[in-house]
Each structure stands twice: as structure tokens, then as C-alpha cells.
Write a structure and sequence with these properties.
The chain is α+β, with helices and mostly antiparallel strands. It folds into 2 domains: 273 residues, no CATH class; 73 residues, no CATH class. It has 12 helices and 10 strands. The strands form 2 sheets. Strands 6-5-7-3-1-4-9-10 form an 8-stranded mixed β-sheet. A two-stranded antiparallel ribbon has the order 2-8. Helix 1 crosses helix 6 and helix 3 runs parallel beside helix 9. The N terminus is likely disordered.
Length: 370
């Protein structure tokens, strides 16, 4: 499939049969749940003394943006960095093509990702004619416009997509690897909104924003009150988005948002060239930084401060913080210099620990000094 030249990428009608079937499978499931979900939304709004009808809040989805988080310095299976592949190819590719992931490495026939896509999309992507490039791309719906994207767990930088992409996306409340029952599309989002309101009523937290109540969330969604300078740190609390069809940089991307640890680096320069080449602005978000002796030992376990200290000792300047670029230098070394890490055991374990260093940084890091 070739993306159109029109801003917003391929129309829903330009999807492959498998992609269109996946989209319709989720939409049909969401439509079945619509009456009950609308009643739930109305009940939560009434209990919070919010006078808006559900439809007014549902319209906020049209103002939302899907973001796709990624680490730009990780190496793809072909040896290129993610940033270089974006620059050269002009498209963002799924784990089924790149062979890398900032979650689990299960994107192969019979793997965990393949199995949960089978359940979620009714077997659409298990058809014989489906290629790895046809598989969906994963991101999140950034309803609260967190500066670090909807899902920073999966990367220090993100692509902010144009509104037209919403029409060929599906959504679930929480991560799809958990087998979520709450799913939707942009035009059948009632069950997802009902689930969000139920979570807020139960926990007082919405999309990682604490001390939230239904009334304040309704105002934010209704009025479009955004705080784009504020990071959300949403490691686990997000509305996942699955984008069906090609994610073409020139057509589908509104903005590239980059961690400031890449200022003045080769990776940062490549990302700047991506923005220039494909015609969208590049913005730097506040970023995350931690002194090496402040890396938490409980959040992801005692091995993480030890690894952070090693990263800092071998790859950082004296006095520099632990940041996204430093973790990336370790991740690249793990691929290009495996002997350097042999004392730590299997490379897969070290890769997992590097991801967890990043999680600690997102959870506890302060604004990057730039």
C-alpha cells in the first residue's frame, strides 16, 4: 500500500483488506457496547454534578492526538538506528519489521504479540496474504496532552500525529498485552470513555494525572485545557492506540517531540534532519534526568542502580546526569560490543534492565538541564 500525498496519510478506504477488517472488528465490538457505555457515562457525570451530555465529552476525542513514543538511538535488526531509519525510509515501522521493541520482543508468528493481535482483531492479521509491514503500529491517545507523549514507557521521543489518523486507529483502555475488554474507535469511543470515568471515580487518577475528579476531567476534555509543558510520566496508565496502515512521516506527522538529552548529539542532528526533510516542526520536551546516586533501588529492583552506575562510569562525563542518551549509549554497546557485557549474563536480561533504568528515570527524573 502506498500512502497518498494528502496531509493525513491514507484514507480508511486505502487500507489493505486485513487492516480494514481489523478496524471494523473493533468498531463492531465497540458499537455493541455503546448503549450500556452511554448509560455509564451519564451516570458518572450526574454523580459528579456535570451537566454536559456524554456527546460533548466524546467530541474531545476529535481534538486528541495520537502519539507514538520511541527511542531514536536504538538499533534496528538491519543495524541502522531508529532515527536513521526514519530519515532514510520516511515511514515508521512496527516491531514485526524492525525486530526491536521497547516492550516485549514477541512480534513473530505464534509469539505473544501475534496471539493478542489475533484476539483483538478477530484474526485479521493472521490471513495468509498479510506481511509484517501490514501489522499495526502502537501508540497512545494523548487526551491530556502530556509533554512526554501518551506512553513514555516506550520511548524518550514521540511523533505527534495528525487528526486524520484517528479514523484508522483502534483503542483500548490499558495495554493490549493484558487482553483488554474495553475497546473502541474514534467514532465508537463510548466504552473507553466510560472506563476512564470509572477509573477516575475509583482511584482519583486519570492517565497518570493524580488528584483528578470527574468534574475536572470533564472540564479538561470539554474545553481543551491542555498543559503541553507538563510531563505525564504515564508508564502504565494510558489509552493505547493501534494505527492501521502506513505511518508516513510526510503525510501523518504533525510534530516531532524530542528529549533534550539529544541536543548537540548525532542522534539529535538526525532527528532535526527528519523534521526538515518531511516538513514538520521539532520541539524539545522538558526531559528527565537523575543524579547517578539518586537512581531508585525499589521501583524496579536493586540491579537497576548498579547498572546505572556502570553506565555512568563507562559512558558519561563526570557530573553528568543519567538521561535517555546515556541509556541509549549502553543499549547500542550491548548490540555492538556484546563481550563488554558478558559478565552480566544473558544479553536479554541486560536489555530488560536497561528498559527498567529508563522506567526509573521517567518515574523519578527531574527536568533535564539541557
Amino acid at each position: 500500500m502506498t500512502a497518498t500525498a494528502e496531509r493525513g496519510g491514507p484514507h480508511v478506504g486505502a487500507l489493505t483488506p486485513a487492516q480494514a477488517a481489523a478496524l471494523e472488528y473493533v468498531r463492531s465490538s465497540a458499537v455493541i457496547e455503546r448503549p450500556a457505555a452511554l448509560a455509564t457515562i451519564a451516570r458518572h457525570l450526574a454523580a459528579a454534578a456535570v451537566g454536559d451530555p456524554p456527546q460533548r465529552l466524546l467530541a474531545a476525542v476529535e481534538r486528541g492526538r495520537i502519539t507514538v513514543n520511541f527511542h531514536p538511538d536504538r538499533l534496528c535488526a538491519d543495524g541502522r538506528s531508529v532515527a536513521s531509519a526514519l530519515a532514510e525510509d520516511g515511514v515508521y515501522r512496527s516491531q514485526f519489521v524492525t525486530g526491536i521493541s521497547n516492550g516485549g520482543l514477541t512480534a513473530y508468528s505464534g509469539g505473544d504479540r501475534d496471539r493478542w493481535e489475533r484476539r483483538m482483531f478477530g484474526g485479521a492479521y493472521q490471513r495468509p496474504e498479510v506481511t509484517p509491514a501490514d501489522r499495526p503500529i502502537y501508540g497512545g491517545l494523548n487526551l491530556l496532552d502530556h509533554a512526554d507523549g501518551a506512553c513514555p514507557r516506550f520511548g524518550s521521543c514521540h511523533l505527534r500525529l495528525r487528526p486524520a489518523v484517528l479514523a484508522r486507529a483502534t483503542f483500548c483502555l490499558g495495554d493490549s498485552h493484558l487482553g483488554p475488554s474495553v475497546v473502541g474507535t474514534a467514532d465508537a469511543f463510548e466504552a473507553v470513555l466510560a472506563g476512564l470515568l470509572a477509573d477516575v471515580a475509583r482511584t482519583g487518577v486519570c492517565l497518570a494525572r493524580a488528584e483528578t475528579d470527574i468534574a475536572s476531567l470533564a472540564r479538561t476534555l470539554r474545553d481543551g485545557q491542555r498543559t503541553p509543558s507538563t510531563v505525564g510520566r504515564a508508564l502504565d496508565d494510558y489509552v493505547e492506540a493501534q494505527i492501521h496502515g502506513v505511518l508516513d512521516l510526510a503525510c501523518d506527522v504533525e510534530e516531532l517531540v524530542v528529549d533534550p538529552s539529544f541536543v548537540g548529539t548525532a542522534t539529535g542532528g538526525t532527528l532535526e534532519s527528519v523534521a526538515r526533510r518531511y516538513g514538520f516542526p521539532l520541539r524539545w520536551h522538558p526531559g528527565f534526568a537523575l543524579a547517578v546516586d539518586e537512581v531508585d533501588a525499589e521501583f524496579r529492583g536493586p540491579a537497576i542502580p548498579v547498572l546505572a552506575a556502570r553506565l555512568h562510569r563507562e559512558f558519561a562525563r563526570p557530573g553528568a546526569p543519567v538521561d535517555a542518551a546515556l541509556i541509549g549509549r549502553g543499549a547500542v554497546s550491548l548490540v555492538t560490543e556484546p563481550h563488554r557485557w558478558a559478565d552480566r549474563g544473558p544479553a536479554a536480561d541486560t536489555l530488560q534492565h536497561l528498559k527498567q533504568v529508563w522506567h526509573v528515570l521517567v518515574r523519578f527524573g527531574t527536568t533535564h538541564p539541557g
